Amino acid sequence: MSNFSTEFVKVTEPVPHVLLVELARAPVNAFNEAFWTQYGQVFDNISASTNDVRAIVLASALPKIFASGIDLTALDHINNLHPEPARRAFELRSHVKAFQNSIAAPERCPIPVIVAVNGPVYGLGVDIISACDVRYASSDATFAIKEVDVGLAADIGSLAHLPKITGNTSLLRELALSARTFSVVEAEKLGLVSKVVDGGRDAVVKEALSLAKLIASKSPVAVLGTKHLLMHARDHSVAENMDYTVAWNAAMLQTGDLSASFKALTAKPKRQPQYEGLKLPAKL
Prior knowledge:
Blueprint: E1 9-15, E2 18-23, E3 30-31, H1 33-48, E4 55-60, E5 69-70, H2 85-103, H3 105-108, E6 113-117, E7 120-122, H4 124-130, E8 134-138, E9 142-144, H5 158-165, H6 169-178, E10 182-183, H7 184-190, E11 195-197, H8 201-216, H9 220-234, H10 238-252, H11 257-266
Parallel strand pairs: 2-4, 3-5, 4-6, 6-8, 7-9, 8-11
Antiparallel strand pairs: 1-2, 9-10
Helix pairs in contact: 1-2, 4-5, 9-10
């Protein structure tokens, strides 16, 4: 899968149907414009490809850190924007929208994305993991919603996603307003991560790959549909989602994967179902 790799993002296929996407801008995975543009393009290219990819693990290629946040030199472009305030605002708005679009790429990717974090996950790192489906952390991970420390309200996704993916509003507001560093204990209490893995980078990546392998063994039609319906449910009422699911499954209940699953489960001895690959639309 090296055809997906870029200068700062490494892509491999450690097990069939599972891609490992690694952030690889030494020494600390600080994001400049080239890095975040490549990041978004990698996920969009995977989504649009004909490869039979069924699960993705996102991790750092660096053993001691997931991401330090934005490379502050990437903000120098602000000094070169139009001097007139309204026109300057339009230029800046376009830039931030493109930035948001890149970091949100895992969310719009039809394939489940499991992120495995280790070491510091600061600022933009929290934006990145907030757009993923499942979040695992090593026991040495630390987090910070860091933007207020540099004079900003976080604008690339944290404040949009975190209230919807976490369950402790008071703690979330405390962390966002104070910018203080917090451990995996508080991250789990917040609901930001679903599993803490004892060890460092290799241990948490191994655990995430194990989950990805399990997901990849399931019906691609069922997995894609589940992610899609969960995303719809997040942004709609229960009644709207139920109606939408009726329309969705009116088509998807016709899949041959149902028959393949039933035959495998009733076979003696039971066997693992084998499912046909699915060419994924970049956007449903």
